[in-house]
Amino acid sequence: MDNSIHLLNEILLMLKKALFAELAQIGQVLSSPMRIEILDYLAQAPRSVESLSQLTGLSVANTSRHLQVLKSASLVEVEQRGKQRIYHLADDDVVALLQALRRTAENHLDKVKQLLSQYPDAGEVAPMDLASLKQALEKEEVILMDVRPEEEYQAGHIPNAIHLPPEAVEQAVEKLQAEQGEALKEKTVVAYCRGPYCIYSHQAAQLLKAQNIPVRRLEEGLPEWRAAGHPIEHNLSQQ
Question: Do 142 and 84 sit in the same domain of this protein?
């Protein structure tokens, strides 16, 4: 009996070490800032290698190598669409993984806190969390603005969000003022983007604040909204 228990303990110990080794594989994959950035882009919409190359500033060959590493850890999947290979996140739990990584870094790394304090609207525009936004939307207290690029907006956005293209946000705000009129002063505008580090929502919030329009910025982004199980709207007619 003692030998059986000893053997069982040895087997369990080996299994535990093997499991820790597999966990370490995820850590090794996430040790590259470029691979984290690629995952952040894929959280918005499926993309080709060429598209990711343009977004990250990496060569196509280098981007492809990073994607193969991510694929080896089953964090991304790929499908063939015509002549293109399109990559997407394996599941929304990858978004949750990035959230946990970000929150841990923000809680424990002073350098992260220092960098966040350098955002231009830091301390000026109050952030709003997902739960508060959901409640405000249900009460029709806010005007929601998606300030991501067109491709990402079309791929999926929070229902009823108005699109403000980041490359023409000033003109879009002027158009919004003409269309919404007094509603902009009666309701709070909430701008959201790819996630907490995306610059577009910060830029839009600054611009709206300069126009004396009540504005807040969603603390997280579309991927976190989707991963929380909230509904997503697609502009299928324009895809």
Answer: no
